[in-house]
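Q: What does the predicted 3D structure of BadF-type ATPase look like?
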Amino acid sequence: MEYLIGIDAGGTKSELVAYDLDYKPIYKSIGGYGNPSVSYDNTIRNLSALIDECLKELNPSRCIFLAAGIAGVEKGNTRELIEKYVRDKYGIENIILNDVIMAAKAYFGEGDGILVISGTGSSCYVQKDNMGQVVGGWGHLLGDEGSGYHTVIEAFRRITYKIDRGVPLDDLSNRLMKEIENLGHSDIKSFIYGSEKKDIAALFPKIIEQANRGDYEAISLLKQAGIHLADLTITAYNRFEFDSKVTIALKGGVFYNSEHVVSSFEDAIAEHIKDFQLLKKDISVSKAVCNIYKIRR
């Protein structure tokens, strides 16, 4: 049985899914991170381990195409180097893409649409007339509005504002202060300036938990995140001319875990874009290999 391999390689983990030619998944595995801008050697090592494991389970001679979306692959000639590595080692025709472009191919194929991503960070990708453009994605120092990290930072900004003015802390603020004490930090500054981005963003689920209990401050933060993400999407929409209904796909844990974010996002979009379709389904980025193969076939 001939099959395809799709890989979604991100900053914390990578996912490999093999599909038969009816585009049904037949194998799946999870491996280490894939970001050559962090470590090219580790990225190659982790990708190789995933592919090797897959080829042991399936007939290696029957894999006819591989597509991988890899964070940071646009740097220099990294994409070409990885394509050559896969071709030389495995003899498999392949294409290596930036992880955001790969995600857009999974959702839209060669069609038009806007992909909005919000997890630890945030970005927007417009695919129009087989061309693409990233809007946002500047990282946590310059942007990432509406992301899990940014929302947590906003929560701590509110805490410091209240502390400076002698205002009693609300339930959400007390919850977050207790969380950072449990993580071994004595104060806000030691946590914010001494923690990695992902560790700060890891407090985002606590905001969701408080919102689900009806906490006003938590709900307002999540609604504000939705508005930030809508603004990014509207900016992207206005840069391109969509002649008909535009599909807007939502991806990432911020969307999947908070209806407050989604509803405020949708309301803000509706004020500026009259004809749109919201795609909320979580589609595996690895699925892009099927859409790419259809076109190349």
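A (community wiki): The structure tokens above were generated from the sequence. The first strand starts at residue 3 and ends at 9. The beta strands are 3-9, 14-20, 25-31, 63-70, 94-98, 113-118, 122-128, 131-136, 246-251, 276-279.
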